[in-house]
Amino acid sequence: MSMVRYSVVDVFTDRPFTGNPLAIVFDAQELAGEQMQAIAREFNLSETIFVLPPTTGEATYRVRIFTPGTELPFAGHPSVGCAVTLLRAGLVKGPDVVQECGAGLLPIRIDEVHGTATVTGGRPTIGPELDPGPLLASIGLTGADFAGPAPRQAGCGLEFTFLSVTDEAVGRVRLQRPVDNLSVLHWDAQRRAAHARVLVPEVGVAEDPATGSAAMGLGVWLVGSGLLPGDGLSEYHIDQGSEMHRPSALHCTITASGGSAVSATVGGHVVPIASGEMTVPPFVG
Questions:
Q1: Which end of the chain is more exposed for a tag (fewer CB within 10 A), N or C?
Q2: Mean pLDDT of 182-201
Q3: Do 9 and 270 contact (CB within 8 A), yes or no?
Q4: Same domain, 105 and 13
């Protein structure tokens, strides 16, 4: 195997050169993990997704997802972008597919006409309340910028810490010291919309322009913090990436029961950008 085929798409946007770019590598079953990591470093996008045959009859296909620095069990924008691209290429049949990944078997619904997909995340998790002070200091903000409720970790297969600040403060975020999966946001309760920035420097991405996994985790945090209803289905929206000149729109739902989140989805548009072939990096075993 000397070459692999790939496509590049922009995810969570309906316009090219906005949203979150994604590289998709097809027929990756002969690649070792270190070769996948080398390819992800070469693309140097927030994530690169590799398509593999499934290992179970319940799955339509299997994927592995890499940032420039590490492998992830799950990520939202690769899941959405890959599903739409596979359908457009005639490699899967829609509208419903099941993606096998490190976080398990995740259902995805694809709308071929509109070029969108919606992925359902894994089991929601949420942690205890955290002190906002150290988090604010790590991004150059102070207690005057804090909007509450208390920050907590939450996720649906990949956890993030959610820190609520004023809308003006979101634009002033400047990383001062290392943080791990931090979503800084302003919540507009009337619009049920968030203005968010997501910092993930420990996986080799200083800031992500659109983060589907964090978008679903936000819903878990919103329910756990009493900002969305504790029963039934709620919709909410996230604007992200404008500070990076990559404006992105993420459309989400959260389903809750008895005051706790039980499932979450995130969806958006996918715009094709490029395709080609890449040399396979050497394997060093």
A1: C
A2: 97
A3: yes
A4: yes
What does residue 250 show for φ and ψ, rounded to 5 degrees? -115, 130
Question: Could you tell me which of 186, 188, 207 has the C-alpha nearest to residue 196?
Answer: 186
Q: For residues 99 and 146, state if they share a domain.
A: no
Residues 61-84 have pLDDT tens digits of 999 999 999 999 999 999 999 999
Can you tell me the distance from the alpha carbon of 126 to that of 124, in angstroms, rounded to the nearest whole number? 7
- The catalytically annotated residue of 30, 42, 47, 159 is 47
- Tracing tokens 């994927």 back to the chain, one arrives at 63
Q: Is residue 284 part of a domain?
A: no
CA distances from 68 to 41, 184, 202, 267 (A): 4, 22, 10, 24
Q: How far apart are the first and last CA of the chain?
A: 16
pLDDT in tens, 195-210: 999 999 988 889 999 9
- Angle, nearest 10°, between helix axes 76-88 and 212-224? 130
Whether residues 11 and 80 share a domain: the answer is yes
Residue 255 lies in domain? 125-265
Indicate whether 182 belongs to any domain. yes
Is-catalytic flag, 71? no
pTM over 0.70: yes
Compute the half-sphere exposure of residue 162: CA atoms within 13 Å on the CB side of its CA.
35
Based on the domain organization, do 73 and 7 belong to the same domain?
Answer: yes
- Predicted pLDDT of residue 285: 57
26 in a structural domain: yes
242-284 pLDDT, tens per residue? 999 999 999 999 999 999 999 999 999 999 999 999 999 987 6
Q: How many domains does the chain have?
A: 2
